[in-house]
TrEMBL record:
Membrane topology, from the record: Multi-pass membrane protein
Domain annotation STAS: ranges: 525-685
Family classification: Belongs to the SLC26A/SulP transporter (TC 2.A.53) family.
UniProt xrefs under SUPFAM superfamilies: SpoIIaa-like
Organism annotation: Stercorarius parasiticus (Parasitic jaeger)
Cell division keyword on record: no
Keywords of the record: Cell membrane, Glycoprotein, Membrane, Phosphoprotein, Transmembrane, Transmembrane helix, Transport
GO MF, one annotated term: secondary active sulfate transmembrane transporter activity
Reaction(s) the record says it catalyses: oxalate(in) + sulfate(out) = oxalate(out) + sulfate(in); iodide(in) + chloride(out) = iodide(out) + chloride(in); bromide(in) + chloride(out) = bromide(out) + chloride(in); oxalate(out) + 2 chloride(in) = oxalate(in) + 2 chloride(out)
Name of protein: Sulfate transporter
Gene (name only): Slc26a1
Residue intervals passing through the bilayer: 54-76, 96-119, 173-192, 212-230, 335-355, 376-398, 410-428, 472-501
Length: 689
């Protein structure tokens, strides 16, 4: 039987589009109010804020995150190749803007190691092209706190004409100019992606790609910090193969290691790792995480200051960190043109990490987020701060987990964290002058524990899915050994290729009947299946399209042990020989048989079926090549007096077959060619026999 399809009312697409356009372009007070409240979600939830219920958790989590943010911001400035003050600016503005525009209640947006690394690589490249020395171990400035007063070695004034910057600009000035231009362009990309609703781009970054990318980047981050750990002065490597080049330079200069930095690093790593392990073990007993990083920084700064480690042992220190805010400045347009390509992967990675963490928190705490609004939020977290000497931001997993574990209820906690950073910016920043860079490197390396532990998960990942493991390995290797941007691109392309290959060479099987049932399964996978006399049931577990057409035919011919084209050719050849013998008057065939016995030879012994049932339950769609392939096998098997029946086709496949003329012009034979279950097709075949 054939089920009747519903008739769909024809719609005028032009009228529908015009109606949507009129609706979207109309402006009413109600619509304007909804637009503003959607664009600034804080206007919806803040008036409903339950102060007594939420305030304690928000204040506590905000203080804890703020305390963690300060040392991390100062440390991650090493990754970005910028001064610590810019990292503090970034952390401050990102929290305020996401408070106004974000839809997640728990995600922590701010400085992130992976994003800082990507920014730092672009900054280093442009500094090198501009002729600056990448050595960042020059003596720190003892200026009056103004960011314009730099050391003579680091920022000898250059009259730069590069990228249209004709004013005198030193190394630090040019570096933050590159970073802000990069950040602004990345933010513009994210806003444009939100306007055109391109959030689906994140779907092409699978979990394996993201994990491999993060792990590979973590290896790069770790490598970049080793020189600070042991206190050697080597140039910051640039370009492809940075990981290998850096390690070669490290081993070449290992004899120059600073003993003071080595001892300090060893002590800090032991303290930080021990505290982290104890915190993980007893986290159910602790109301909030131990502020180990802050304690280490305070103690290390005091020891360095009173022990005069910089003067006596030549240990590299952070230097002067000024207080207050620098007047805002518009990012240079000409610099934007130089970094426009670099900003695209930065924008995508920043958005994907933010949305994935937001969705994780929303699922855990039973609320919803708007991915498109998250795109706008993280976009403006980049655009607006770029005017205030900040660089790119993203949601950070570690801080988000801390935030949720310390009782966070809303993004009010983000405002509290911003106030803690502001306190440091206005009053406490100069106190970190004597802080050793090796201590900051220790904080960065210990923060990579989670990403580096992914190596322990490889056996379990391999056991679950070998292809995903291969994607992870390829992405991780490319990100670490080539570059982070190339690694991300390689991961995406390789992941897509894996999907294509899996559809090009899918599983195929001949099915047998489960005894005393109307169900059929793979004859090679299950025991005690019954074969149907004179019937072959073939399953193809993928869409049938141009890329896997040949594999479909080869698999069908191999499993049924019959290639209809070869069989037809063999028959024609045999008939031709028979005619030649008859013309000669010989009443025996080429095989020495009588003419009456030749009919036995025309039907080959290997054809042990008369009906072929194709199980289309796994065929999600057909393209033109797929329809033509089914028409081809229908014709070829018909020439051998073998019927072809289709079973379990979805409506999309049926429509494709109809449009392709598979059932003829009037669909008259459709009831005898198409069945809604394999069992119906088998029963029909038995009745026809």
């Amino acid at each position: 039987f054939l089920m009747e399809r519903k008739t769909r009312a024809k719609t005028n697409r032009k009228e529908v589009m015009l109606a949507k356009l009129r609706k979207s372009c109309s402006c009413t007070p109600k619509k304007l109010k909804n637009f503003v409240m959607d664009f600034f979600p804080v206007l919806r939830w803040l008036p409903k804020y339950h102060c007594k219920e939420y305030i304690w958790g928000d204040v506590m989590s905000g203080l804890v995150i703020g305390i963690i943010l300060v040392p991390q911001a100062i440390a991650y400035s090493l990754l970005a190749g910028l001064k610590p003050i810019y990292s503090l600016y970034t952390s401050f503005f990102a929290n305020i803007i996401y408070f106004l525009m974000g839809t997640s209640r728990h995600v922590s947006v701010g400085i992130f190691s992976l994003i800082s690394l990507m920014v730092g690589q672009v900054v280093d490249r442009e500094l090198l092209l501009a002729g600056f020395d990448l050595n960042d171990d020059a003596p720190p400035a003892l200026g009056d706190g103004s960011l314009q007063n730099d050391s003579q070695i680091n920022t000898t004034a250059f009259n730069l004409t590069i990228a249209g910057m004709n004013a005198e600009c030193g190394k630090e000035c040019y570096a933050i100019g590159i970073a802000t231009a990069l950040t602004f362009v990345a933010g513009v990309y994210q806003v444009l992606m939100g306007i055109f609703r391109l959030g689906f781009v994140s779907m092409y970054l699978s979990e394996s790609v993201l994990d491999g990318f993060a792990t590979g980047a973590s290896l790069t981050i770790l490598t970049a910090q080793v020189k600070y750990l042991i206190g050697i002065k080597i140039p910051r490597s640039q370009g492809h193969g940075m990981l290998a080049i850096t390690w070669i330079n490290i081993f070449r200069n290992i004899s120059q290691a600073n003993l003071c930095d080595v001892i300090t690093s060893a002590i800090c790593i032991v303290v930080l790792v021990t505290a982290k392990e104890l915190g993980d073990r007893y986290k159910h007993k602790l109301k909030f995480p131990l502020p180990t990083e802050l304690v280490v920084i305070v103690v290390a700064t005091l020891v360095s200051h009173y022990g005069k480690l910089n003067e006596v042992y030549a240990s590299s220190v952070s230097g002067a960190i000024p207080t207050g805010f620098i007047p805002p400045e518009v990012p240079h347009f000409n610099l934007m043109l130089r970094v426009a390509v670099d900003a695209l992967p930065l924008a995508i990675v920043s958005f994907v990490f933010t949305v994935s963490l937001s969705e994780m928190c929303a699922k855990k705490y039973a609320y919803t987020i708007r991915a498109n609004q998250e795109m706008f939020a993280v976009g403006f977290c980049n655009i607006i701060p770029s005017f205030f000497h900040s660089f790119a931001t993203s949601a950070a997993l570690a801080k988000t987990l801390v935030k949720t574990s310390t009782g966070c209820q809303t993004q009010v906690s983000g405002v509290i964290s911003a106030m803690v950073v502001l306190l440091v910016l206005l009053f406490l920043a100069p106190l970190f002058y004597s802080l050793q860079k090796c201590v900051l490197a220790c904080i960065i390396i210990v923060s990579l524990r989670g990403a580096l532990r992914k190596f322990q998960d490889v056996p379990a990942r391999y056991h679950v899915n070998k292809v995903d493991t291969l994607v992870w390995v390829v992405t991780m290797s490319a990100s670490a050994l080539i570059s982070t941007e190339i690694g991300l691109l390689v991961g995406i392309v390789f992941s897509m290729l894996c999907i294509i290959v899996r559809t090009q060479r899918p599983r195929t099987a001949l099915l047998g009947q489960i005894q005393d049932t109307s169900f059929y399964e793979d004859d090679l996978e299950y025991e005690n299946l019954s074969s149907i006399p004179k019937v072959k049931i073939f399953r193809f577990e993928a869409p049938l399209y141009y890329a896997n057409r040949n594999y479909f035919l080869k698999s069908l011919y191999r499993l049924t042990n019959l290639d209809p084209n070869l069989e037809a050719a063999r028959r024609k050849k045999y008939e031709k020989k028979e005619k030649q013998h008859l013309k000669k008057g010989d009443h025996t065939t080429a095989n020495g048989l009588g003419i009456g016995e030749t009919t036995l030879q025309l039907v080959p012994k290997q054809i042990d079926f008369q009906v072929l049932v194709v199980d289309c339950s796994s065929v999600s769609f057909l393209d033109t090549t797929g329809v033509n392939t089914l028409k081809e096998i229908l014709k070829d098997y018909k020439d051998l007096n073998i019927s072809v029946l289709l079973a379990c086709c979805n409506p999309s496949v049926i429509d494709s077959l109809k449009r392709g003329g598979y059932f003829g012009k009037d669909f008259g034979s459709m009831q005898e060619m198409l069945f809604y279950s394999i069992h119906n097709a088998v029963q029909f075949a038995k009745e026809q026999k």
